[in-house]
Amino acid sequence: MLERQEALTFLRQHIHKENLVKHMLATEVCMRKLAETRKEDQESWALAGLLHDIDYELTAENPQKHGIISMDMLAGSDLSPEILDAIKSHSGHCERSTPMAKALYAIDPLTGLIVASALMTPMRKLSALNTETVMKRYKEKRFAAGACRDQIASCTELGLTLDVFVGLCVEAMQNASDELGL
Description:
This protein is mostly helical. 63% of the residues lie in helices and 0% in strands. The model has no long low-confidence stretch (mean pLDDT 96).
């Protein structure tokens, strides 16, 4: 299977916007944390998170191809079918049939909500956040409006309450705050 460092190098060859790289790193750590709590393969889940938007810059003007181009880019990468399915399905191109795919779908917009919440704190740091702060922001529909609340709430498909799910992702991102620059 593709090693993390190889995946990160590949990502940086295709993604040039640092904020997008940080989003993908945030998704990686959240996926790893969720895999840990579910006793799933942490490396596989993390790779799905790290690579899920690998085609984003190529498909920005053609979003209906987002996820499809990723499959071409990742062909021959030795990633498992489960990882490829999660990456493809996070953008709505196929049914989310595995826990990994369901997790990626729910985590993707949550990372943006968490970052936006952190930037609204006086310290502008992840360390200033707690679950309650993010949950208050979650309820403000115009705050980080691009973070689809229904997509985040789909965490219930994994048997998680919204509070627990948000708490796990806040903790994961706080633990990676240096790498995320927050």
